[in-house]
Amino acid sequence: MGQKTVKKLSGTFFVRILGMFLFGIVGLWIALNISGPQPYAEDWRYILTLALAGSGLGLLITPTLTIVPIRWISERLRTVAIEDFLAVGVGLVAGLITSALLTVPLAMLPPPLGQLLPFVLSVLLSYVGASIALLRKNEIYNLLAGRRSVGAGGYVTGPSGILLDSSAIIDGRIADLCKTGFLSGPLIVPRFILRELQQIADSSDPLRRKRGRRGLEVLDRLQNETLVPVRFSDLDVDEISDVDSKLVQLARMHHCPILTTDFNLKRVAELQGVTVLNIHDLAQTMRPIVQPGEELVVQLVHEGKEYGQGVGYLDDGTMVVVEEARDQVGKKVEVTVTRLLPTTAGRIVFAHLSPASKKKR
């Protein structure tokens, strides 16, 4: 039996005992009021019976009246973002202050309006204030948090930080990116992401084990070799088991972006309104632009899929497919770009051998 289960059982037991005493006292009070100020001797049997019945009832139903609704409310509140709490609180306070100012003149109205309208107005203005505040929750939260500007999707670069996905950590380029100073952070690593990396590092599969250990090494580099702060967070969503879903839910709750290289996670997060920073997208954007007609020097490393093709790569990893260059594999050749083909993995450059390279054949 786990420690968490023991705590739940001890809490339930305490509530049952407390309910037993309280309901027993209520039952005794009711019995004494029924029997009168001076009960007869035979009345005490009924008094004790009613008191014991109250104790038994309290023992049975107190957890249902207290623990069950409290747990239900707690589970619901855990999925509500702090911005919503703050917005509702500000809206309620504003509504109550406004209703208090109007209570004095309304109380002067003849009854029953003088007694009824202040209460109705308080409820109505509180509801209106909370509703309006929820619509403007991002602005309210940013104002209270001392932030200056709001970005797309309600995200503000500042103390909330950037949630790191395990794929971005294992990829490794995040450490080099942080060294450049383009990311101000802080980078937030939830504990469940750290556990996932540890499980991958302990895998029986050599390839997975190598990737997991690489991720742990990258985290060590981020902490010791970069100026971007890295924070480990205990934030979690217990009712969700999938790691990617946990990350998306946390990003929604706390209005943080996710840094990842996982294309599927990127699509799912964006569909739910979460800002995603994809390292692959950044790398594609920063690649040098190659134009048709431009001449390049490329090392051909293997044959292409089609007959006669040779394939090489630019320094940034862009694939270059050279027509009629199969016999030049293993050599450096001059090529002329003919066209570009954008793909989900990046650009593919198609080219043919330049006249100078053809003469050398």
Number of helices, counting only DSSP H or I runs of 4 residues or more: 14
- Distance between the amino and carboxyl termini: 77 Å
The rounded Rg comes to 34 Å
Q: Count of DSSP E strands? A: 10
Spatial strand arrangement across the major sheet: 3-2-1-4-5
Identify the CATH architecture of the largest domain: 3-Layer(aba) Sandwich
Relative helix content: 55-70%
- The ordered H/E elements are HHHHHHEHHEHHEHEHEHEEEEEH
Plain-language structure description:
- With 361 residues, the protein is of the alpha/beta class.
- It folds into four domains: 3-75, no CATH class; 82-142, no CATH class; 153-285, 5'-nuclease (Rossmann fold); 289-360, Nucleic acid-binding proteins (OB fold (Dihydrolipoamide Acetyltransferase, E2P)).
- The protein has helices spanning 3-35, 43-65, 67-78, 82-107, 113-135, 137-145, 166-171, 173-180, 191-201, 206-225, 243-254, 263-271, 279-286, 355-360, and strands at residues 162-164, 187-190, 230-233, 258-260, 276-278, 295-303, 310-313, 319-323, 332-343, 346-353.
- The protein has a five-stranded parallel beta sheet, sandwiched between helices.
Give a brief rundown of this model:
By secondary structure, the protein is an alpha/beta fold. 57% of the residues lie in helices and 15% in strands.
Topology (elements, then pairings):
Blueprint: H1 3-35, H2 43-65, H3 67-78, H4 82-107, H5 113-135, H6 137-145, E1 162-164, H7 166-171, H8 173-180, E2 187-190, H9 191-201, H10 206-225, E3 230-233, H11 243-254, E4 258-260, H12 263-271, E5 276-278, H13 279-286, E6 295-303, E7 310-313, E8 319-323, E9 332-343, E10 346-353, H14 355-360
Parallel strand pairs: 1-2, 1-4, 2-3, 4-5, 8-10
Antiparallel strand pairs: 6-7, 6-9, 7-8, 9-10
